[in-house]
């Protein structure tokens, strides 16, 4: 592969910034409950496609930024992202060759794990957590996985196409 | 290392294995959470991170500010004039009411002096804008565009035109995070305006509802009663409206009545809030800086 991968970091940083912005953009209240966990999807994408260059530390830092922006307990999203990042890293060779339908199912489970970790920390730290709407992002995130994959591939490897033209 | 074969992968990554790394980072996050949960040892870290990420919030808020501004500058002259007239009338009305209030306040001060009790000094306020960013969906938090540079401090009360909105939880030099009174981990000491009955109003996680869980069944409280801040606890200045009682359920089987109230302030509708510096609260704040930074919040 002749991709200029030495310039990967700016792209990872840019995608994380986009994920953070999407996480705090105001939405109407009926849509806000459905907001996908964008940053989790982006981290899963990177760990799936660049497992040797984007690691758990990226997931951790991204989670820490998300905690700050959300006013959550410092480390809550970081913990959840590191865990799903680890699972993704562990099985990335298998998940990468899955057809899209199976990838969606896998992402569904990953985001379910992510939301469960958030739920668990909320419960332990005495936040009210029993609301069925908090599980809606699991479905919406899985539904958006194909879109995220396509957009992220554009961001990930824009150069080969440019060279061909 | 791998002799110029780009596709060959070493069997083992350099450095610690992924499992060890994962374990280390998980441990680090748990340590962070414990320290953050226990009386905010990480406030400086959080405030620094929050300051570093401020440009993101500004970027998200910008389109909304621009839309507001454009809407104002492009709206019709006729509508602006009408709005101006309406505001002028409102101002006149408020002014008239204030005159009476001034007289009452002076009378109150004189009476208090006669009784040798301390007089209430009027509070200083600063209008600040709520930034259009969503925080965690189930927590009622807002970000405002005033920080320590403007004198904001942790635990400072926030008001709007109709009543108490919440209190500041984290500050950095240019912005602050605040918790609304409807947040489920927030509680505010209140009293019934009609008879001075003191209790605590606890948030429910619903913008339109507060609970008063500590009232016995025979408490003298009725639907429509106005709840005002009692000033106990030292965080909120006394005498500002908090909520109106809407619903009381007295079940003889339970020792406490179930009382619900609707917040007086427009918690999820306004775009501007007022930071308040009250003499009583700041005196308490200066005297008790070593205590828990959120004296109103429940453990």
Describe this structure as you would to a colleague.
The complex is a heterodimer of chains A (165) and B (299). Chain A has 165 residues and is mostly helical. Chain A has 9 helices and no strands. Chain A has helices at residues 8-24, 29-32, 38-49, 56-70, 76-90, 92-96, 100-124, 136-156, 159-164. The relative contact order of chain A is 0.14. Residues 161-165 of chain A have low confidence and may be disordered. Chain B has a 6-stranded antiparallel beta sheet with strand order 1-12-3-4-5-2. In chain B, strands 6-7-8-11-10-9 form a 6-stranded antiparallel β-barrel. In chain B, 33% of the residues lie in helices and 22% in strands. Chain B has 299 residues and is α+β, with helices and mostly antiparallel strands. At the A-B interface, helix 1, helix 4 and helix 5 of A face helix 1, helix 2 and helix 3 of B.
Question: Main attributes?
Answer:
heterodimer, A: 165 residues, mainly alpha, globular, B: 299 residues, alpha+beta, six-stranded antiparallel sheet, six-stranded antiparallel β-barrel, 5 helices
Largest sheet of chain A: none
H/E element sequence of chain B: HHHHEEEEEEEEEEEEH
Number of strands of chain A: 0
In N-to-C order, the SSE pattern of chain A is HHHHHHHHH
| Helix content estimate of chain B | 25-40%
Please compute the radius of gyration of chain A using only Cα atoms.
16 Å
Q: Low-confidence runs of chain B (pLDDT<50, min 5 residues)?
A: 1-6, 281-299
What is the structural class of chain B? alpha+beta
Radius of gyration of chain B: 25 Å
Number of helical segments with 4 or more residues of chain B: 5
Q: What would the average pLDDT of chain A be, to the nearest integer? A: 86
Distance between the termini of chain A: 17 Å
SS strand fraction of chain B = 15-25%
Shape assignment of chain B: globular
Please give the alpha-carbon distance between the first and last residues of chain B: 56 Å
Going across the biggest sheet of chain B, name each strand in turn. Answer: 1-12-3-4-5-2
Largest interface: A-B, 47 and 45 residues
- Measured as a percent range, the helix fraction of chain A is over 70%
**Tally of contiguous helical segments of chain A:** 9
Low-confidence stretches of chain A: 161-165
Helix- and strand-based class of chain A?
A: mainly alpha
